[in-house]
Design a protein that fits this description.
- By secondary structure, this protein is of the alpha+beta class.
- The chain contains 3 helices and 7 strands; from the N terminus they run βααββαββββ.
- Strands 3-2-7 form a 3-stranded antiparallel β-sheet, covered by helices on one side.
- α1 packs antiparallel against α3.
- The longest helix has 13 residues.
């Protein structure tokens, strides 16, 4: 396995906040409960997430796990590159949920 020329990075960073706000489980938000969910998934050459590859590696809360699954479906990435080609890349990504004050 070679080293990527470019690692995947979020392309729609600007809209992530509003995506997560919409998906935040209301009961948890109201109770001030947050947490981090560590996800693992494959990013396709077109920058979308292969949802069949997505899994939760660590989570403090089942509802946050479900919300994270829904969130990554909407994430778009600049895909990883190898030898000048966009390639599939398996990544791990922590998703942190923090209740709004």
């Amino acid at each position: 396995v070679g080293v990527l020329e470019r690692v995947p990075e979020l392309a729609n960073k600007g809209s992530i906040g509003s995506i997560m706000e919409r998906l935040y489980p209301r009961l948890l938000q109201d109770a001030g409960i947050g947490g981090t969910v560590v996800m693992q998934f494959v990013i396709e050459p077109d920058g979308t997430v292969d949802m069949s590859s997505a899994k939760v590696l660590e989570s403090s809360n089942e509802q946050l796990s479900e919300a994270s699954m829904k969130a990554i479906e909407r994430f778009r990435f600049r895909p990883g590159r190898y030898k000048g080609e966009n390639v599939r890349v398996l990544i791990q990504m922590p998703i942190t949920w923090q209740p709004a004050n």
